[in-house]
Specification:
The protein is an alpha+beta fold and 231 residues long. Helices cover 42% and strands 11% of the residues. Strands 1-2-4-3 form a four-stranded antiparallel β-sheet, with helices on both faces. The structure holds flavin mononucleotide.
Length: 231
């Protein structure tokens, strides 16, 4: 696979889309509430089926954020397992997809200098998911009212809108699907009802240009692999 996305245009949108990457190392510089609200407003401009605009974005702060992180880390370190609210990966994972998964892990751990067999090093990084990578802004994305897959599709568009809006302001973001592994714990910690599905987290803030993890560069497959023509 090529190292860079095979995008050939250079208009402002192409630049944004090409330059956005998952950011997992942040400067401590806070974001003010207005900035976060504006990003969320922009995210909500995403289209949705019948304009239902599913989901909620929770801004987790202060002791609530800390308590959630503490409990997630504890559950994960104790090996606790829950059933997720929604399935993500195909089971079994086809070999072609497994290769992409492995390549993205190699990009990440390669940037961190963590060897494949260094379990402790990988675990130490993985734990950072539950700290929202120490980003100044920690978001939780939820969805209720028993939406089906369409709701997740709508939310995905909003999430990408949020990422690009952040990127256009020089901010970085990373979706955190790892949180979806502990839906019950999150609901209980935040006092959410059983009907609230835990979709993912998101870290937002100013990227730390010196953080090795931010040198992670993933690739995309060639168009031949995912575009089909039928005449
Ligand atoms: C829905 C979703 C969930 C994700 N969950 C995680 C996560 O839990 N931890 C993590 O480090 N990255 C997570 N990522 C980031 C992906 O690994 C990343 O988007 C992918 O490897 C492509 O790299 P890029 O975003 O830098 O282009 C997630 C991305 C998406 C879209």
């Amino acid at each position: 696979m090529p190292r860079n996305p095979p995008v050939i245009s250079n208009d402002p949108f192409a630049q944004l889309a090409r330059e956005r990457r998952s950011v997992r190392g942040f400067l401590p510089t806070p974001l003010n509430d207005d900035t976060v609200l504006e990003l969320l407003r922009l995210a909500r401009l995403a289209p949705s089926g019948a304009n239902l605009q599913p989901g909620h974005f929770w801004v987790l702060r202060g002791p609530v954020r800390q308590r959630l992180t503490d409990r997630l880390v504890h559950a994960w370190k104790s090996g606790e397992q829950e059933t997720e609210d929604y399935g993500y990966f195909p089971r079994p994972m086809p070999l072609a997809l497994k290769r992409r998964q492995v390549a993205s892990a190699q990009a990440l751990y390669g940037a961190l200098g963590v060897a494949r067999e260094d379990r402790a090093g990988r675990d130490a990084h993985f734990e950072r998911n539950f700290h929202f990578f120490d980003a100044p802004v920690a978001l939780l994305v939820t969805m209720e009212h028993a939406f089906g897959s369409g709701g997740y599709m709508d939310l995905g568009m909003a999430l990408y809108g949020l990422m690009l809006a952040a990127q256009s302001r020089g901010l970085g973001s990373c979706a955190i699907g790892a949180l979806a592994s502990y839906p019950g714990l999150i609901r209980q910690t935040l006092g959410l009802g059983d009907h609230v599905h835990i979709v993912c987290g998101m870290a937002l803030g100013h990227p730390d240009p010196d953080a090795p993890v931010n040198q992670t560069i993933t690739s995309r497959c060639e168009t031949e692999e995912y575009v089909r023509y039928l005449d």
